[in-house]
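In the design runs reported in the main text, the only information available to the sequence generator was the tokenized backbone. The following block is the verbatim input for one such run; it is reproduced so that readers can re-run the procedure and compare outputs position by position.
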């Protein structure tokens, strides 16, 4: 029987699912048997274990009652509901770690894979001050960012295409020193043999293909998937009709954006302007 491998470090939802499966296995229960005891279907149990469905407070309460775990599932369930990571993103990150090609478009902020530690910390600190996330969630975001960047240091390295809206490089984050180091990081990124770096200038106007951030992956078996997000929701898609249209739009964006040489020249100009 093929079972999806569960990696609890990926996210609070993955940790919840792994605990549920582990305790079920220890008691020799099938998903249907556990579902009967909790008042849910076996399909529902499977969906929570594999992260396809989030546990509700009622589900967690029933799990604690069946496994006699006090309020452990209730507390884990709260962590799942209050995670700093959008729905769909942990699964995207897991796929990103093994992708052969990564295509990124970002608006407003330098994307995570290209951020310096100080730039990333400045963003999360600002979110904490605004009350948008807790300090614990900020730590979660930074830990995930570190894992993402570390996973890309492999042989062979994935081909990374990054198109940044001009707002990403003009928006000052963290003060002059932090921003100067971040711009230096972008210049270094562009020099790598496995990267393509471009800036989509403001004057693209309506010719800019995307209004929101988007990520596209090519996996080792040459299949593709795409992840897109808004401020409150993330969505992972594998349907080739959806993915192909996004790939086409991304190629159009690259054709309209500044060349890599012109993009680096812009970054260097901005870097010199930082005192």
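Verbatim output:
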């Amino acid at each position: 029987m093929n079972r999806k491998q569960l990696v609890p470090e990926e996210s609070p939802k993955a940790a919840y699912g792994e605990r549920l499966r582990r305790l079920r296995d220890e008691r020799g229960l099938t998903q249907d048997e556990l579902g009967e005891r909790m008042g849910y279907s076996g399909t529902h149990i499977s969906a929570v274990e594999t992260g396809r469905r989030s546990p509700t407070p009622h589900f967690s309460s029933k799990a604690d009652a069946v496994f006699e775990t006090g309020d452990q599932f209730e507390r884990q369930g709260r962590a799942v509901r209050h995670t700093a990571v959008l729905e769909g993103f942990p699964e995207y990150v897991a796929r990103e770690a093994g992708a052969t090609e990564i295509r990124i478009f970002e608006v407003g902020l330098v994307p995570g894979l290209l951020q310096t530690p100080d730039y990333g910390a400045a963003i999360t600190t600002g979110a904490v001050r605004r009350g948008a996330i807790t300090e614990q969630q900020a730590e979660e975001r930074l830990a995930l960012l570190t894992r993402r960047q570390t996973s890309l240091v492999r042989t062979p390295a994935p081909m990374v295409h990054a198109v940044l809206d001009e707002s990403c490089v003009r928006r000052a984050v963290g003060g002059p020193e932090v921003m100067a180091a971040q711009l230096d990081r972008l210049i270094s990124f562009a020099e790598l043999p496995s990267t393509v770096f471009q800036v989509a200038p403001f004057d693209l106007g309506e010719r800019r293909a995307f209004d929101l951030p988007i990520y596209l992956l090519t996996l080792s078996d040459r299949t593709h998937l795409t992840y897109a997000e808004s401020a409150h929701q993330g969505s992972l898609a594998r349907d080739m009709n959806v993915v192909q249209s996004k790939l086409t739009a991304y190629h159009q964006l690259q054709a309209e954006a500044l060349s890599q040489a012109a993009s680096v020249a812009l970054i260097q100009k901005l870097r010199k302007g930082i005192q």
